[in-house]
Design a protein that fits this description.
Elements (H helix, E strand, L loop, with lengths): L2 E8 L3 H17 L4 E5 L4 H7 L5 H8 L3 E6 L14 H11 L4 E7 L12 H4 L3 E7 L11 E6 L5 E6 L6 H17 L3 E6 L5 H14 L6 E6 H10 L6 E4 L1 H14 L7 E5 L5 E5 L16 H13 L4 H16 L2 E2 L9 E2 L2 H13 L1
Helix pairs in contact: 1-10, 1-12, 6-7, 8-9, 10-11, 11-12
The chain binds nicotinamide-adenine-dinucleotide.
């Protein structure tokens, strides 16, 4: 069956990095994979062309595709727009419209880049963690929420701000299943992170994870409080295989974990719905400071295509073909400027794309 992919380059370096990922898809296509790609505008580009950061045509395209490849959105020229028109709103809306509830963020460090991490090379070299973050629930969406006037500690009226941490069993169950399925394809170890010693919401989270665990007897499950997890991630991150956690804890821990791996230009991500339809994007933003200079690192976006092959299309061979090509390029000492070190060959964004394509064909 033809794989329908919506390609949404977005703003800043988005078009440059996405063009390199498209080259990789073209290699797969030339080798016989039935792929149909169609481009749409999102973010600032959507506002510029259609007055909307998520134009109706783009949403339609995304909904009718099997997977979405996204570059990045945003730029200083859009910062003064009203909130609903800002590029980031387009991104939030597309995630919600596609019901992408499971966010997969690998924290992976290629041994060749161990020196670019702020942690000691022996602590991070060969690091390979997958963080599965719930993306559509928790305190970010729970009701009631707001700011209102109530009696303060001294009894006098004052403003209070409040949010609700809330998870239903079914929300926990579906994200837990995604995490267990991933653990089955990796090291078969899953660590569920919450704060069950203090929060009822976490207590329920733990109970449901334990129930789902019965469906996966081969997976070794552990539970960790989020404060300890934050500590363990910098102390000995290689103890983790797959981590599953709620929206707010995952937001913080996945950013922390991304820093273990040195460069923001290396890390892909996936956001999946119930049927493994997914949106794939680098974790970084639109990098306006280097946009249009052909020097951004396209590897995070190229590795997002590998994730797309693995998680939406179940094509492990193509995923590994792309990942092996990236490893080969790094092993040869080919680097964009953000990961360049003395003695390596410096290449442009398009030069890196060409190097990965050449390695895939080798
Ligand atoms: P950023 O990730 O765009 O950039 C941070 C720093 O990392 C910059 O110095 C940039 O040059 C560098 N960088 C990022 N990606 C790189 C790459 N592939 N290769 C080499 N260097 C790279 O974050 P920011 O500067 O805080 O935000 C810039 C814009 O991006 C803002 O408008 C922000 O809202 C938006 N943003 C979008 C997303 C997204 O689309 N998912 C995520 C974060 C930020």
């Amino acid at each position: 069956m033809t794989k329908k992919i919506a390609v949404l380059p977005g703003d800043g370096i988005g078009p440059e990095i996405v063009a390199q990922a498209v080259k990789v898809l073209e290699v797969l296509k030339a080798d016989g994979m039935a792929i149909e790609m169609a481009e749409g505008a999102i973010g600032g580009a959507g506002y510029d062309t259609a007055g909307d950061p998520l134009p109706a045509a783009t949403l339609e395209l995304a909904k009718s595709s099997d997977a979405v490849l996204l570059g990045a959105v945003g730029g200083p020229q859009y910062d003064k727009l009203e909130r609903p028109l800002r590029p980031e709103r387009g991104l939030l809306r597309i995630r919600k419209e596609l019901n992408l509830f499971a966010n997969l963020r690998p924290a992976l460090l290629y041994p060749e880049l161990a020196d670019s991490s702020s942690l000691k090379p022996e602590v991070v070299s060969g690091l390979d963690i997958m963080i599965v973050r719930e993306l559509t629930g928790d305190v970010y969406f729970g009701e009631p929420r707001g700011i209102e006037v109530r009696p303060g500690v001294d009894g006098k009226p004052e403003r209070v701000g409040f949010n609700t941490m809330l998870y239903s069993e079914s929300e926990v169950r579906r994200v837990a299943r995604v995490a267990f399925d991933i653990a089955m394809k990796r090291g078969k170890r899953l660590c569920s992170v919450e704060k069950a010693n203090v929060l009822e919401c976490s207590e329920l989270w733990r109970e449901v994870v334990l129930e789902v665990a019965k469906e996966y007897p081969e997976v070794e499950v552990s539970h960790m409080y989020v404060d300890n997890a934050a500590m363990q991630l910098v102390k000995w991150p290689k103890q983790f295989d797959v981590i599953v956690t709620g929206n707010i804890f995952g937001d913080i821990l996945s950013d922390q974990a991304s820093m273990l791996s040195g460069s923001i230009g290396m890390l892909p991500s996936a956001s999946l719905d119930e049927n493994n339809k997914g949106m794939y994007e680098p974790i970084h933003g639109s990098a306006p400071d280097i946009a249009g200079q052909d020097k951004a690192n396209p590897l995070a976006t190229i590795l997002s295509v590998a994730m797309m092959m693995r998680y939406t299309f179940g094509d492990e061979a193509s995923a590994q073909r792309i990942e092996t090509a990236v490893k080969a390029v790094l092993a040869k000492g080919i680097r964009t400027v953000d990961i360049w070190t003395e003695g390596c060959e410096k290449v442009s964004c398009s030069g890196m794309g060409d190097a990965v394509v050449a390695a895939m064909k080798a």
